[in-house]
Amino acid sequence: MERSGNMQPSVYLAGPIAGCNKSEANDWRKYVAEKLAQYNIIGISPLRCEPIIGKKYKIVYDDPKFGSPHAIKAKNAFDVRQCDMVLAYLPAEMNAKRPSYGTIWEIGGAHFLNKSTIIVTDDKYIMQHPLLGGCADWLLDDLDEALDVCIGILGGYNGGKNV
């Protein structure tokens, strides 16, 4: 993607959604997006069009615009194509409940689109997995370290540290 003078850099925030409550799905995304915004970097949440129904997010829901399998895939694929970088958060606690298949798909998609990708996890299995590790440009165990990478790489485009 070519960068124009007005285009803000962006980071797609991949991570568990289905089966998560509102806090589990959103708190880390809000934290990361707020930190990135301080450097004029946009954090893109896949949840921006997806409401929570009941107490937990569902895999699909009754909305042909945003809730069908095709619509969800299309929106997430669009975001991965448009972003400058993907930050995938896969904490062991969430992985133990249910693997985040959508996040794995987004990591693979980002790899094939040559998008820089950061995987943040404390899950030893993910850290050692040859395909996930092979798709990650950075494999970290701390969100703040991932933020340092995002800001270091993308922050210079909008008045951040260039030298």
Question: Can you describe this structure?
Answer:
The chain is α/β, with parallel strands linked by helices. It has a single domain (10-158), classed as Rossmann fold. Helix content is 44%, strand content 13%. It is built from 7 helices and 5 strands; from the N terminus they run βαβαβααβααβα. α1 links the parallel β1 and β2 (42-44). It is globular, with a radius of gyration of 15 Å. The protein starts with 9 loop residues before the first strand and ends in a 9-residue tail after the last helix.
Order of helices and strands: EHEHEHHEHHEH
Report the helical percentage: 40-55%
User: What is the terminal-to-terminal distance?
Assistant: 23 Å
Using the coordinates shown, work out and report the CATH topology: Rossmann fold
CATH architecture: 3-Layer(aba) Sandwich
How many separate domains? 1
Which band does the percent of strand residues land in?
Answer: 5-15%
Number of helices: 7
Radius of gyration: 15 Å
Biggest beta sheet attributes? 5 strands, parallel
User: Averaging pLDDT over every residue, what do you get?
Assistant: 89
The geometry reads as globular
What structural class results from the helix and strand content? alpha/beta
pLDDT below 50 for ≥5 consecutive residues: which ranges? none
Largest sheet, spatial ordering of strands: 2-1-3-4-5
* CATH class value: Alpha Beta
DSSP, total strands: 5
Question: Could you name the key traits of this structure?
Answer:
163 residues; 7 helices; Rossmann fold; alpha/beta; 5-stranded parallel beta sheet; 44% helix
